Structures are given as C-alpha cells and as structure tokens.
Amino acid sequence: MIQSRPRLTARYGATLAAALVVLTGCSSGASGPRSTSAAGAPVPGPSPDPLTWSTCGKKLECATLEVPQEYTEPDGRQIPLAVMRHRATDPDRRIGSLVFNPGGPGVSATETLRNLPKATGTPGAFSAEVLARFDIIAMDPRGVGRSQAVRCLTDEQRANAAGTDFDPAVPGGKPLPRLLADAVAFTDGCAKHQSKKFLASLSTDNVARDIDQVRSALGEDTITYYGLSYGTVVGPMYATLFPDRVRQMVLDAPVDTNQWFGNPLPLQQEVAVASERTLNAWFETCRTEGTAVCPFGTGDPQAAFDTLIDTLEAKPLKIAPLKGVTPGGELDGAMALEATRALAGDQNTWPLLTSALLAAQEGNGAPLHIMWSSVTVSPFPVPTAMFETHTAVRCADWQTPAGIAAHRAAATKAVTEAERIGPRAAYSALNCARWPAPNKDRVTKPLTGAGTPTALVVAGRLDPVTPHHWAENMTRTLDSAVLLTREGVGHGSYGTNTCVDSAVGAALIHGTRPADGTVCETDTPATTRPLVPGNR
Hints:
disordered N terminus, two-stranded antiparallel sheet, disordered C terminus, 21 helices, alpha/beta, about 15% strand
C-alpha cells in the first residue's frame, strides 16, 4: 500500500484497444533545511550547493543532489537523488517551484514528469496555466527510480514469480507456508542487494528532508506542493517538519496518515474493500444498462464473472504471442481477477473491461492477459521492480506486527469483507513483518501541518485505492484543510475533471480554495461507451 496505479487510459488504453480490434518568481538567499528527529528535536542539516542542470529532454533539465543517508549523521555517507525540472513556460509570470510526488511509494517522479505531456486527461496531469506559472520539480525519492532504486529479487526470481499460478480461492493467492517462504526470499534479497542502513533510511520523514534539501538547492524560500496517493503522505510530513517552507499544498487521493504509520493491517483490508466496491459498481452498471448495452453475463454479470474466474483457474487459456504487444503465455483465474480489478478501478476503462471479459468468455484471453502483464497494482504482490521499491518504503514507515496470528486474522477479515479482492490483499504485509532493517527513529507524531496555509484535500467518491473516508480523516488530522469530493470511480482527480482542475489550479496559483465539502460531478459511468477525459 499505497501504490497509485499507472494511468490506465493514457498508458494502456490505446494498446489494449488496438489488441481488442486485432484479437476480438525565484527567491535567493534561502537557508539550509531545519529537520527534526522523531521526538521533534532539531536535527542540523547541511546547506547543499546549487543544482547543476543539464538538458535531458524537451523543456526538461536534470540534476543530481547528494544528501545525507542519515540526517543525524550529516557528515556521514551521502546518497544521490535524481531531480528533474520543467521550466515555467511563462517566465515573466513565474510564481516559483512546484514539487510533486506521483505516488506509490515506488513511482518515479522524474519518469512521470517526462511523460506528462502524453498524459493529458489522466490523474496528476498539470494544466497549461500551472505549467506556465511554475517550475515543476520532480525528485525520485531515495530508493526509487534513478535515486538508487531498491532491488530485492533476481531476474530469475522475478520471472518465476510472474509465471506462478495464484489460486484466488486461497488467502494471499498461495498457501501460507509458500507465502512465508516467499517473504524470506524477498527480504533476504533486499538485505543482499543493498545495505541495511540504506533500507532503514527510506522512510517518508527522510523523503521530506530530502525535499527540503532540493528546495534549498533551488534557492527557494518556500515551495508549492502537489501530491497524489502516497504523495499525500509525503506532503503532510513535509508540512509538519517544515511548516514555514510551504506556500500552498494540494493532496489528491489522500491516504489516512494515522493508519499508514500506526495500523497497516487494517489499512490493507480497507484498500481491498475499496477496490471491491469499484468492481461492484461495474457489476451494477452493467446490470442496470441491460443486455442490449452490456451483454456480459446476460443480466447477471456477477455470476458470470465468478464462473469465468473459476473456469480460467481450472483450465487457463493459452495466449499466442503478439509481436510488440505480448510474448504469450497463459491466463488463469487469478490473473484475470487482477486485470479486472485494475480496469474496474477507473470508469474510463470500463469499456475495455467489458470487451476483455466478453473475449475471455469466448475463449480469447489475450486482452485480459495484456492488461495483467502491463499493469502494476497495489497493495498486492506482483513480480515487478516497482513492487520492490514500494515494499521497502512502506516497511521503513510501517509498524508491522511480527506475529503470524495478526496477519492470519487480518487475512480472514479481508476475505470476509471483500470476497473477490480480499484474497489478493491478505498476508500482503508479510515482507514488512520480517523486514531486515528496522527504522528506529521514524517520525510517529500526527501529521498536522500546523502553521501552513489551508490545504486542499481532493478525493474521489469511489476510489479503488484510497477510500473516501481516508480523505475525511486527513481533513480532520490536518490543522487547516478543506475537502473537495469528485463523484465517480477512479484513483486521483486532478487532470480528469474540469471542476476539480479549476479548484486545484486556483489553490496552487492563487491560494484560493472552494468551500469545505464542495462536490464536483462527473459523467455517469458506462460499460461500453468510452468516456472522454476532461469532458465532464
């Protein structure tokens, strides 16, 4: 948890659709960072040198910043952070630097910034006016992307994991002894590939300190901040440790920071329930539309779906290679369930889901297999490099029970409350239960951001990853915040809804916010009619 999914419509929609056709103002003199320990005592931080930029793409500049691995040892080992900048397109009206974190943990901010021009109409896509007024700053957090990405598995282990059959009827997808053995192999691999001190340093409080190093190196007195998903943990942490450094802050698809740091097993279960609700929303929409519009299941899509998953698990479909799209393989029930979970979580991809399920029902599993092999999902284990970095950060943050009894009870609860998705969440925190690099000085106090301007918290009514009540909890936890709700299904709202875009732009640029409790409407979702992002 919490790993924001890739922008399905922009990143995979065209590929999968094609397959379906084939197959069915800069300040000066800023001071160095003032950090704090877990107890809140000042920790001195070095003043970094100004960043040295080099061109690394269209309108993009890149730099590397050395920061202390441990801020309690400022003269000790230094680690490199990758930083990228997109210059304000209207320099005469430039306000300052806008730092953003696109989520995960594990999503590369620099790669996200590089791809933003291609991501119009997807969560986190900045408007033209925001791009005109701010230098957009992307920093790959320590252990992520180009900032020494964590490695825990060998290529062979990743390939074996990708080829493993996961029985969705079993909590966690595998028998418990196998899950425990996997956790041992994973955590041992993490300790083998990098030092335990580095792994212990990957906590969100250190990411916040790193951001302040970037701010200082940029020569800025304050920064504007936009965070998506896990980025809403980073933002409040920064605002709590460095309240006088925040100009404005927008938090999109927020995480309940109190649960993130204090109660990870219920947090995982609540994600499963949220994801199950979005799948149920697809079922209900398909049923309401009727068989003339949504033929899957001939009026009972839930029963048809369960039958399809059981059938695929008993006899997986063979997938022929398709050059440039998929190497082929098999589609079993668990893989189909995972792909469905991802597609159901964004109402813009519901038409793709309907087509892919109909194809699988007719014996063509390629569309679902393409999605399964492409999408990176969370909080459920998948054999990708992103999962390794994701796990390392959350283990540095979380206070995870070590005893198996707590995980067994959480698994039972997850399966009971989310019968289809719950088994994929059960036992998903086992790696953190035996993490080899405990973080003994992590920040545990409530992230109130006291002393910062009023934050804008934005939440989707049916978010498959961060349920709406987490946004309500964050609004209460922050010293000053207002909540804006977007109706509809999807993870992340800014960049997908004109009402939200207007409110976020006003907050970032002018520091004005809507009234607390404002609601933005969205299109009624449909299972066969593609929605046009931004046309709400």
